Amino acid sequence: MRLIVNQLAKAYGYLWALRPLDLEIAPGEFIALLGPNGAGKTTLLKLLAGLSTPTAGTIELDGKSVAANSATRRGHIGLFAPADHLYDQLTVLENLRFFTALYGKESQKKGLAAAVEEVGLAERADEYAGNLSAGMKCRLSIAKWRLLDAGLLLLDEPYGVLDGNGVDLLEEFLRQQCAKGHIVIMASHHVSRAVNLCSRALVLHQGRLSFNQAKQTPWPSFDRAFGEFLPRGGL
Amino acid sequence: MTLLRQTYLLMWKDLLLELRRRDSLLTIFFFGTLLLFVFHFAFDLPPDRIAELAPALLWLAFLFTGTLGLAQLFQAERDNHCLDALLLSPLDRGALFLAKTGFNFALMFVVELVVIPLFWVLFNLSAWNLLPQLFLVTLLGTVGFCVLGTITAAITLRARARELLLPLVLFPLMIPVILATIRCMESIMQTGGMTEAMPWLRLLIGFDIIFLTIGILIFDWVIES
Questions:
Q1: Hey, which of A66-80, A176-190, B112-126 has the most confident mean pLDDT?
Q2: Which is it for strands A200-205 and A30-34: parallel, antiparallel or unpaired?
Q3: Quick one: pLDDT at residue A164?
Q4: How confident is the model at residue A109 (pLDDT cuts 50, 70, 90)?
Q5: Are strands A56-61 and A3-12 parallel, antiparallel or unpaired?
Q6: A81-104 pLDDT, tens per residue?
Q7: CA distances for A215 relative to A155, A218, B83, angstroms
Q8: Between chains, do A72 and B81 touch, taking CB under 8 Å as contact?
Protein backbone atom coordinates (compact mmCIF):
# COMPACT_ATOMS: atom_id res chain seq x y z
CA MET A 1 0.00 0.00 0.00
CA ARG A 2 1.43 3.40 -1.02
CA LEU A 3 0.19 6.67 0.46
CA ILE A 4 0.50 9.96 -1.39
CA VAL A 5 -0.61 13.25 0.13
CA ASN A 6 -0.78 16.37 -2.06
CA GLN A 7 -1.08 19.87 -0.58
CA LEU A 8 -3.24 18.54 2.25
CA ALA A 9 -4.47 21.31 4.55
CA LYS A 10 -7.06 21.88 7.23
CA ALA A 11 -8.36 25.16 8.59
CA TYR A 12 -10.86 25.77 11.37
CA GLY A 13 -12.34 29.15 10.53
CA TYR A 14 -9.33 31.44 10.07
CA LEU A 15 -6.99 29.14 12.01
CA TRP A 16 -4.77 26.75 10.05
CA ALA A 17 -4.53 23.51 12.00
CA LEU A 18 -2.51 22.00 9.18
CA ARG A 19 -0.81 24.01 6.44
CA PRO A 20 -0.45 22.56 2.92
CA LEU A 21 1.65 19.44 3.15
CA ASP A 22 3.05 16.93 0.65
CA LEU A 23 4.03 13.39 1.56
CA GLU A 24 4.79 10.11 -0.11
CA ILE A 25 4.98 6.99 2.01
CA ALA A 26 6.11 3.65 0.61
CA PRO A 27 4.77 0.23 1.63
CA GLY A 28 6.23 -1.09 4.89
CA GLU A 29 7.30 2.33 6.21
CA PHE A 30 6.92 3.17 9.89
CA ILE A 31 6.45 6.90 10.33
CA ALA A 32 7.00 8.62 13.67
CA LEU A 33 4.80 11.72 13.72
CA LEU A 34 6.23 14.10 16.28
CA GLY A 35 5.72 17.62 17.47
CA PRO A 36 4.53 19.64 20.45
CA ASN A 37 0.91 19.89 21.57
CA GLY A 38 -1.23 21.67 19.00
CA ALA A 39 1.23 20.98 16.18
CA GLY A 40 -1.45 19.33 14.02
CA LYS A 41 -0.60 15.64 14.57
CA THR A 42 -4.14 14.51 15.47
CA THR A 43 -5.59 16.70 12.70
CA LEU A 44 -3.34 14.97 10.16
CA LEU A 45 -4.29 11.52 11.48
CA LYS A 46 -8.02 12.35 11.33
CA LEU A 47 -7.65 13.61 7.76
CA LEU A 48 -5.81 10.45 6.74
CA ALA A 49 -8.46 8.33 8.46
CA GLY A 50 -11.23 10.14 6.60
CA LEU A 51 -12.83 11.31 9.85
CA SER A 52 -12.29 14.94 8.94
CA THR A 53 -12.71 16.70 5.61
CA PRO A 54 -9.63 18.52 4.30
CA THR A 55 -9.88 22.22 3.48
CA ALA A 56 -7.58 21.57 0.53
CA GLY A 57 -5.49 18.82 -0.99
CA THR A 58 -5.86 15.15 -1.81
CA ILE A 59 -4.98 11.80 -0.28
CA GLU A 60 -4.29 8.78 -2.45
CA LEU A 61 -3.96 5.18 -1.37
CA ASP A 62 -2.47 2.96 -4.06
CA GLY A 63 -3.28 5.65 -6.63
CA LYS A 64 -6.95 5.93 -5.66
CA SER A 65 -8.34 9.02 -4.01
CA VAL A 66 -9.47 8.63 -0.40
CA ALA A 67 -11.69 11.67 -0.92
CA ALA A 68 -14.05 9.34 -2.77
CA ASN A 69 -14.36 7.74 0.67
CA SER A 70 -15.62 4.46 -0.68
CA ALA A 71 -16.38 1.63 1.71
CA THR A 72 -13.56 -0.47 0.22
CA ARG A 73 -11.00 2.31 0.77
CA ARG A 74 -12.17 2.83 4.33
CA GLY A 75 -11.71 -0.86 5.09
CA HIS A 76 -7.96 -0.48 4.55
CA ILE A 77 -7.45 2.36 7.01
CA GLY A 78 -7.29 1.77 10.76
CA LEU A 79 -7.18 4.26 13.61
CA PHE A 80 -5.79 2.79 16.79
CA ALA A 81 -7.37 4.67 19.69
CA PRO A 82 -5.88 3.14 22.85
CA ALA A 83 -8.96 2.90 25.08
CA ASP A 84 -11.66 4.06 22.66
CA HIS A 85 -13.70 2.65 19.78
CA LEU A 86 -14.97 -0.27 21.88
CA TYR A 87 -18.48 -0.91 23.19
CA ASP A 88 -18.42 -1.04 26.98
CA GLN A 89 -21.49 -3.27 27.25
CA LEU A 90 -20.16 -5.89 24.83
CA THR A 91 -17.74 -8.52 26.07
CA VAL A 92 -14.16 -8.71 24.85
CA LEU A 93 -15.06 -11.48 22.39
CA GLU A 94 -18.30 -9.81 21.28
CA ASN A 95 -16.40 -6.59 20.47
CA LEU A 96 -13.95 -8.53 18.33
CA ARG A 97 -16.73 -10.54 16.70
CA PHE A 98 -18.69 -7.36 15.91
CA PHE A 99 -15.79 -5.48 14.36
CA THR A 100 -14.46 -8.43 12.34
CA ALA A 101 -17.98 -8.95 10.93
CA LEU A 102 -18.27 -5.21 10.21
CA TYR A 103 -15.02 -5.32 8.23
CA GLY A 104 -16.20 -8.44 6.41
CA LYS A 105 -13.44 -10.53 7.99
CA GLU A 106 -15.60 -13.35 9.27
CA SER A 107 -12.85 -15.75 8.27
CA GLN A 108 -10.95 -14.34 11.24
CA LYS A 109 -13.57 -15.74 13.64
CA LYS A 110 -11.41 -18.78 14.27
CA GLY A 111 -8.59 -16.46 15.21
CA LEU A 112 -10.59 -14.53 17.84
CA ALA A 113 -9.61 -16.77 20.75
CA ALA A 114 -5.99 -16.82 19.62
CA ALA A 115 -5.91 -13.00 19.29
CA VAL A 116 -7.36 -12.61 22.79
CA GLU A 117 -4.84 -15.11 24.13
CA GLU A 118 -1.93 -13.29 22.49
CA VAL A 119 -2.72 -10.01 24.22
CA GLY A 120 -3.19 -11.70 27.60
CA LEU A 121 -6.97 -11.31 27.83
CA ALA A 122 -7.94 -14.99 27.54
CA GLU A 123 -9.22 -15.16 31.11
CA ARG A 124 -11.32 -12.03 30.64
CA ALA A 125 -12.71 -12.87 27.22
CA ASP A 126 -16.30 -12.99 28.50
CA GLU A 127 -16.09 -9.82 30.59
CA TYR A 128 -17.61 -6.55 29.42
CA ALA A 129 -15.06 -4.22 27.82
CA GLY A 130 -16.32 -1.52 30.21
CA ASN A 131 -14.98 -3.53 33.16
CA LEU A 132 -11.45 -3.54 31.76
CA SER A 133 -8.80 -1.05 32.80
CA ALA A 134 -7.55 1.44 30.20
CA GLY A 135 -4.42 -0.67 29.69
CA MET A 136 -6.50 -3.82 29.15
CA LYS A 137 -8.71 -1.94 26.66
CA CYS A 138 -5.58 -0.93 24.81
CA ARG A 139 -4.57 -4.59 24.63
CA LEU A 140 -8.04 -5.36 23.28
CA SER A 141 -7.49 -2.69 20.61
CA ILE A 142 -4.23 -4.43 19.67
CA ALA A 143 -6.16 -7.72 19.26
CA LYS A 144 -8.82 -5.90 17.24
CA TRP A 145 -6.37 -4.35 14.76
CA ARG A 146 -4.37 -7.57 14.57
CA LEU A 147 -7.55 -9.22 13.28
CA LEU A 148 -8.65 -6.34 11.04
CA ASP A 149 -5.16 -6.06 9.51
CA ALA A 150 -5.43 -2.51 8.13
CA GLY A 151 -3.07 -1.62 5.29
CA LEU A 152 -2.63 1.87 6.75
CA LEU A 153 -2.62 1.94 10.55
CA LEU A 154 -2.74 5.29 12.34
CA LEU A 155 -1.95 5.54 16.04
CA ASP A 156 -2.53 8.52 18.30
CA GLU A 157 -0.56 8.42 21.55
CA PRO A 158 -0.74 4.66 22.03
CA TYR A 159 1.72 4.39 24.93
CA GLY A 160 -0.06 6.38 27.62
CA VAL A 161 -1.96 3.58 29.33
CA LEU A 162 0.17 0.52 28.58
CA ASP A 163 2.45 -1.28 31.04
CA GLY A 164 5.88 -2.59 29.99
CA ASN A 165 4.53 -5.87 28.70
CA GLY A 166 1.75 -4.09 26.83
CA VAL A 167 4.28 -1.77 25.16
CA ASP A 168 6.28 -4.82 23.99
CA LEU A 169 3.08 -6.37 22.60
CA LEU A 170 2.19 -3.19 20.74
CA GLU A 171 5.65 -2.66 19.29
CA GLU A 172 5.91 -6.29 18.18
CA PHE A 173 2.50 -5.98 16.49
CA LEU A 174 3.55 -2.77 14.70
CA ARG A 175 6.80 -4.36 13.48
CA GLN A 176 4.78 -7.29 12.10
CA GLN A 177 2.44 -4.88 10.28
CA CYS A 178 5.40 -3.15 8.60
CA ALA A 179 6.97 -6.49 7.72
CA LYS A 180 3.76 -7.32 5.85
CA GLY A 181 4.18 -4.16 3.76
CA HIS A 182 1.57 -2.16 5.68
CA ILE A 183 2.12 1.49 6.55
CA VAL A 184 2.17 2.56 10.19
CA ILE A 185 1.97 6.23 11.22
CA MET A 186 2.29 6.85 14.94
CA ALA A 187 1.84 10.20 16.67
CA SER A 188 3.51 10.18 20.06
CA HIS A 189 5.24 12.29 22.65
CA HIS A 190 7.36 9.26 23.61
CA VAL A 191 10.04 10.46 21.22
CA SER A 192 12.72 7.87 22.00
CA ARG A 193 10.33 4.94 21.57
CA ALA A 194 8.87 6.34 18.36
CA VAL A 195 12.32 7.08 16.91
CA ASN A 196 13.57 3.58 17.82
CA LEU A 197 10.72 1.99 15.89
CA CYS A 198 10.43 4.29 12.92
CA SER A 199 11.94 4.20 9.47
CA ARG A 200 11.22 7.91 9.00
CA ALA A 201 10.31 10.83 11.24
CA LEU A 202 8.01 13.73 10.49
CA VAL A 203 8.01 16.75 12.76
CA LEU A 204 5.07 19.11 12.75
CA HIS A 205 5.20 22.54 14.32
CA GLN A 206 2.32 25.02 14.29
CA GLY A 207 0.67 23.06 11.50
CA ARG A 208 3.75 23.02 9.25
CA LEU A 209 5.84 20.02 8.33
CA SER A 210 9.24 21.18 9.58
CA PHE A 211 11.15 17.91 9.26
CA ASN A 212 10.78 14.86 7.02
CA GLN A 213 13.70 12.48 6.84
CA ALA A 214 14.51 8.75 6.80
CA LYS A 215 16.11 7.47 10.00
CA GLN A 216 19.87 7.65 10.35
CA THR A 217 22.19 6.59 13.14
CA PRO A 218 23.38 8.93 14.49
CA TRP A 219 20.82 11.49 13.48
CA PRO A 220 22.15 15.00 14.14
CA SER A 221 19.71 16.70 11.76
CA PHE A 222 16.77 15.25 13.72
CA ASP A 223 18.32 16.32 17.02
CA ARG A 224 18.66 19.86 15.68
CA ALA A 225 15.18 19.99 14.16
CA PHE A 226 13.47 18.53 17.18
CA GLY A 227 15.79 20.08 19.73
CA GLU A 228 13.55 22.88 20.84
CA PHE A 229 10.63 20.49 21.49
CA LEU A 230 12.64 17.75 23.21
CA PRO A 231 11.48 16.84 26.69
CA ARG A 232 13.93 17.59 29.44
CA GLY A 233 16.78 15.07 29.20
CA GLY A 234 16.55 14.73 25.42
CA LEU A 235 16.31 11.38 23.70
CA MET B 1 -21.09 -7.39 2.75
CA THR B 2 -24.61 -6.45 1.75
CA LEU B 3 -26.66 -3.60 3.12
CA LEU B 4 -29.06 -6.00 4.84
CA ARG B 5 -26.32 -8.03 6.45
CA GLN B 6 -24.70 -4.89 7.87
CA THR B 7 -28.11 -3.68 9.04
CA TYR B 8 -28.70 -7.00 10.81
CA LEU B 9 -25.28 -6.84 12.46
CA LEU B 10 -25.83 -3.30 13.78
CA MET B 11 -29.36 -4.08 14.97
CA TRP B 12 -28.10 -7.19 16.77
CA LYS B 13 -25.51 -5.01 18.53
CA ASP B 14 -28.08 -2.33 19.48
CA LEU B 15 -30.63 -4.86 20.76
CA LEU B 16 -27.95 -6.67 22.76
CA LEU B 17 -26.80 -3.38 24.32
CA GLU B 18 -30.42 -2.43 25.10
CA LEU B 19 -31.14 -5.82 26.69
CA ARG B 20 -28.14 -5.28 28.94
CA ARG B 21 -28.73 -1.63 29.81
CA ARG B 22 -32.52 -1.42 29.47
CA ASP B 23 -32.19 2.41 29.60
CA SER B 24 -34.35 3.39 26.64
CA LEU B 25 -37.03 0.69 26.89
CA LEU B 26 -37.73 1.20 30.59
CA THR B 27 -37.64 4.99 30.29
CA ILE B 28 -40.08 5.23 27.39
CA PHE B 29 -42.31 2.47 28.76
CA PHE B 30 -42.76 4.10 32.16
CA PHE B 31 -43.06 7.58 30.69
CA GLY B 32 -45.70 6.41 28.21
CA THR B 33 -47.71 4.67 30.92
CA LEU B 34 -47.39 7.69 33.20
CA LEU B 35 -48.65 10.02 30.47
CA LEU B 36 -51.73 7.83 29.95
CA PHE B 37 -52.57 8.05 33.63
CA VAL B 38 -52.08 11.82 33.57
CA PHE B 39 -54.40 12.10 30.55
CA HIS B 40 -56.89 9.79 32.27
CA PHE B 41 -57.12 12.01 35.32
CA ALA B 42 -56.87 15.30 33.39
CA PHE B 43 -59.47 14.67 30.67
CA ASP B 44 -62.99 13.53 31.11
CA LEU B 45 -63.76 12.53 27.54
CA PRO B 46 -67.44 12.74 26.58
CA PRO B 47 -68.55 9.54 24.75
CA ASP B 48 -69.67 11.47 21.64
CA ARG B 49 -66.24 13.07 21.19
CA ILE B 50 -64.09 10.10 22.12
CA ALA B 51 -63.38 9.03 18.52
CA GLU B 52 -62.20 12.55 17.79
CA LEU B 53 -59.94 13.00 20.81
CA ALA B 54 -58.62 9.53 21.67
CA PRO B 55 -56.22 9.19 18.68
CA ALA B 56 -54.76 12.64 19.35
CA LEU B 57 -54.14 11.85 23.02
CA LEU B 58 -52.64 8.49 22.18
CA TRP B 59 -50.28 10.02 19.62
CA LEU B 60 -49.33 12.81 21.97
CA ALA B 61 -48.13 10.10 24.35
CA PHE B 62 -46.22 8.29 21.57
CA LEU B 63 -44.64 11.51 20.38
CA PHE B 64 -43.29 12.43 23.81
CA THR B 65 -42.16 8.93 24.73
CA GLY B 66 -40.64 8.35 21.29
CA THR B 67 -38.66 11.58 21.52
CA LEU B 68 -37.18 10.37 24.81
CA GLY B 69 -36.07 7.20 23.05
CA LEU B 70 -34.60 9.17 20.15
CA ALA B 71 -32.46 11.24 22.51
CA GLN B 72 -30.78 7.96 23.57
CA LEU B 73 -30.57 6.50 20.06
CA PHE B 74 -26.88 7.24 19.46
CA GLN B 75 -25.76 7.06 23.09
CA ALA B 76 -23.78 3.84 22.56
CA GLU B 77 -21.98 5.52 19.65
CA ARG B 78 -21.23 8.65 21.69
CA ASP B 79 -19.58 6.57 24.42
CA ASN B 80 -15.90 5.86 23.70
CA HIS B 81 -16.17 7.62 20.31
CA CYS B 82 -17.68 4.46 18.84
CA LEU B 83 -19.30 6.51 16.07
CA ASP B 84 -15.79 7.23 14.75
CA ALA B 85 -15.11 3.49 14.83
CA LEU B 86 -18.22 2.90 12.72
CA LEU B 87 -17.45 5.75 10.31
CA LEU B 88 -13.92 4.45 9.90
CA SER B 89 -15.17 1.01 8.92
CA PRO B 90 -16.35 -0.05 5.44
CA LEU B 91 -19.93 0.16 6.73
CA ASP B 92 -22.58 1.43 4.31
CA ARG B 93 -24.09 4.52 6.00
CA GLY B 94 -27.50 3.43 4.73
CA ALA B 95 -27.17 0.30 6.86
CA LEU B 96 -26.52 2.46 9.92
CA PHE B 97 -29.68 4.44 9.15
CA LEU B 98 -31.78 1.30 8.64
CA ALA B 99 -30.42 -0.34 11.78
CA LYS B 100 -31.09 2.69 13.98
CA THR B 101 -34.57 3.14 12.49
CA GLY B 102 -35.29 -0.57 12.96
CA PHE B 103 -34.03 -0.55 16.53
CA ASN B 104 -36.09 2.51 17.39
CA PHE B 105 -39.14 0.92 15.75
CA ALA B 106 -38.65 -2.27 17.79
CA LEU B 107 -38.60 -0.25 21.03
CA MET B 108 -41.70 1.74 20.09
CA PHE B 109 -43.49 -1.44 18.98
CA VAL B 110 -42.95 -3.09 22.37
CA VAL B 111 -44.22 0.02 24.16
CA GLU B 112 -47.26 0.33 21.87
CA LEU B 113 -48.17 -3.30 22.47
CA VAL B 114 -48.78 -2.39 26.11
CA VAL B 115 -49.82 1.24 25.89
CA ILE B 116 -52.64 0.89 23.31
CA PRO B 117 -54.64 -1.78 25.23
CA LEU B 118 -53.99 0.17 28.46
CA PHE B 119 -55.37 3.31 26.81
CA TRP B 120 -58.51 1.37 25.84
CA VAL B 121 -58.99 0.20 29.40
CA LEU B 122 -58.31 3.58 31.04
CA PHE B 123 -60.67 5.48 28.73
CA ASN B 124 -63.26 2.74 28.82
CA LEU B 125 -63.35 2.35 25.02
CA SER B 126 -65.62 -0.42 23.85
CA ALA B 127 -64.54 -0.94 20.23
CA TRP B 128 -62.01 -3.72 20.92
CA ASN B 129 -62.74 -5.20 17.46
CA LEU B 130 -61.12 -2.10 15.85
CA LEU B 131 -57.85 -2.59 17.68
CA PRO B 132 -56.08 -4.59 14.89
CA GLN B 133 -56.87 -1.87 12.28
CA LEU B 134 -55.87 0.92 14.64
CA PHE B 135 -52.72 -0.95 15.55
CA LEU B 136 -51.81 -1.27 11.86
CA VAL B 137 -52.24 2.49 11.35
CA THR B 138 -50.22 3.16 14.50
CA LEU B 139 -47.39 0.98 13.18
CA LEU B 140 -47.34 2.90 9.88
CA GLY B 141 -47.24 6.16 11.83
CA THR B 142 -44.48 4.74 14.00
CA VAL B 143 -42.41 3.91 10.91
CA GLY B 144 -42.71 7.55 9.80
CA PHE B 145 -41.78 8.75 13.27
CA CYS B 146 -38.75 6.45 13.50
CA VAL B 147 -37.51 7.32 10.00
CA LEU B 148 -37.67 11.08 10.58
CA GLY B 149 -36.55 10.67 14.18
CA THR B 150 -33.39 8.81 13.17
CA ILE B 151 -32.50 11.48 10.61
CA THR B 152 -33.04 14.33 13.07
CA ALA B 153 -31.27 12.47 15.90
CA ALA B 154 -28.26 12.13 13.57
CA ILE B 155 -28.46 15.81 12.57
CA THR B 156 -28.47 16.93 16.22
CA LEU B 157 -25.96 14.27 17.32
CA ARG B 158 -23.04 16.67 17.77
CA ALA B 159 -25.10 19.63 19.00
CA ARG B 160 -24.57 20.76 22.58
CA ALA B 161 -28.25 21.17 23.45
CA ARG B 162 -29.33 18.17 21.37
CA GLU B 163 -32.12 17.13 23.79
CA LEU B 164 -33.74 20.55 23.26
CA LEU B 165 -32.93 20.80 19.58
CA LEU B 166 -34.24 17.34 18.67
CA PRO B 167 -37.97 18.01 19.26
CA LEU B 168 -37.64 21.52 17.79
CA VAL B 169 -36.40 20.06 14.52
CA LEU B 170 -38.47 16.88 14.59
CA PHE B 171 -41.97 18.02 15.54
CA PRO B 172 -42.58 20.39 12.59
CA LEU B 173 -41.36 17.70 10.17
CA MET B 174 -43.67 15.19 11.85
CA ILE B 175 -46.84 17.16 11.13
CA PRO B 176 -47.84 15.19 7.97
CA VAL B 177 -47.31 11.84 9.76
CA ILE B 178 -49.21 12.87 12.87
CA LEU B 179 -52.03 14.44 10.89
CA ALA B 180 -52.41 11.40 8.62
CA THR B 181 -52.23 8.91 11.49
CA ILE B 182 -54.71 10.75 13.71
CA ARG B 183 -57.18 11.37 10.88
CA CYS B 184 -56.90 7.74 9.82
CA MET B 185 -57.55 6.45 13.35
CA GLU B 186 -60.35 8.94 13.86
CA SER B 187 -62.03 7.77 10.66
CA ILE B 188 -61.72 4.10 11.64
CA MET B 189 -63.18 4.76 15.09
CA GLN B 190 -66.08 6.77 13.67
CA THR B 191 -67.01 4.52 10.74
CA GLY B 192 -65.76 1.16 11.97
CA GLY B 193 -63.98 0.49 8.66
CA MET B 194 -60.94 1.41 6.59
CA THR B 195 -62.72 2.75 3.47
CA GLU B 196 -62.91 6.40 4.47
CA ALA B 197 -59.46 6.28 5.98
CA MET B 198 -57.82 5.22 2.71
CA PRO B 199 -56.70 8.70 1.48
CA TRP B 200 -54.92 9.34 4.78
CA LEU B 201 -53.53 5.80 4.80
CA ARG B 202 -52.11 6.30 1.30
CA LEU B 203 -50.51 9.56 2.41
CA LEU B 204 -48.99 7.77 5.41
CA ILE B 205 -47.61 4.88 3.34
CA GLY B 206 -46.27 7.32 0.73
CA PHE B 207 -44.59 9.41 3.42
CA ASP B 208 -42.97 6.31 4.95
CA ILE B 209 -41.61 5.08 1.62
CA ILE B 210 -40.35 8.48 0.48
CA PHE B 211 -38.56 9.34 3.73
CA LEU B 212 -37.16 5.81 4.15
CA THR B 213 -35.60 6.13 0.69
CA ILE B 214 -34.38 9.68 1.34
CA GLY B 215 -32.91 8.54 4.66
CA ILE B 216 -30.88 5.75 3.05
CA LEU B 217 -29.62 8.12 0.36
CA ILE B 218 -28.69 11.12 2.51
CA PHE B 219 -27.56 9.48 5.75
CA ASP B 220 -23.96 9.37 4.53
CA TRP B 221 -23.97 13.16 4.32
CA VAL B 222 -26.02 13.62 7.52
CA ILE B 223 -23.83 11.50 9.77
CA GLU B 224 -20.50 12.80 8.48
CA SER B 225 -21.24 16.52 8.36
A1: A176-190
A2: parallel
A3: 86
A4: low
A5: antiparallel
A6: 877 899 999 999 999 999 999 998
A7: 19, 9, 36
A8: no
Domain ranges across chain B: 3-224
Q: Do B9 and A101 touch (CB under 8 A)?
A: yes
B40 at A interface, C-beta within 8 A: no
pLDDT at position B138 over 50: yes
| Residue B166 distance to chain A (closest CA, Å) | 24
pLDDT of residue A233: 46
> Is the CB of B81 less than 8 angstroms away from the CB of A84?
yes
**DSSP-assigned letters across all residues of chain A:** --EEEEEEEEEETTEEEEEEEEEEE-TT-EEEEE-STTSSHHHHHHHHHTSS--SEEEEEETTEESTT--HHHHTTEEEE-TT-SS-TTSBHHHHHHHHHHHTT-GGGGGGHHHHHHHTT-GGGTTSBGGGS-HHHHHHHHHHHHHHH--SEEEEES-STT--HHHHHHHHHHHHHHHHTT-EEEEE-S-HHHHHHH-SEEEEEETTEEEEEEE--SS-HHHHHHHHTTPPTT--
B79 in contact with A at a CB cutoff of 8 Å?
yes
ipTM of the complex: 0.87
CB contact under 8 A, A88 and B79: yes
Residue A103 near chain B (CB below 8 Å):
yes
pLDDT of residue A40: 92
Report the pLDDT value the prediction gives residue A184, as an integer from 0 to 100.
96
Q: Which of A53, A89, A132, A154 to mutate: most B Cβ within 10 Å?
A: A89
Burial (Cβ within 10 Å: 0-12, 13-18, ≥19) of residue B19: exposed
Best residue in B3, B10, B12, B13 for a mutation probing chain A (most A CBs within 10 Å): B13
B150 phi and psi angles, rounded to 5 deg: -65, -40
Name chain B contacts of A90, Cβ cutoff 8 Å.
Answer: 13, 16-17
Contact A72 B84 (CB under 8 A): no
Asked if B37 reaches chain A (Cβ–Cβ under 8 Å), the answer is: no
Residue B106 in contact with partner chain A when CB distance is under 8 A:
no
Residue A157 has phi, psi (to 5 degrees) of 50, 65
Q: Among A74, A88, A89, select the one facing B88 at the smallest CB separation.
A: A74
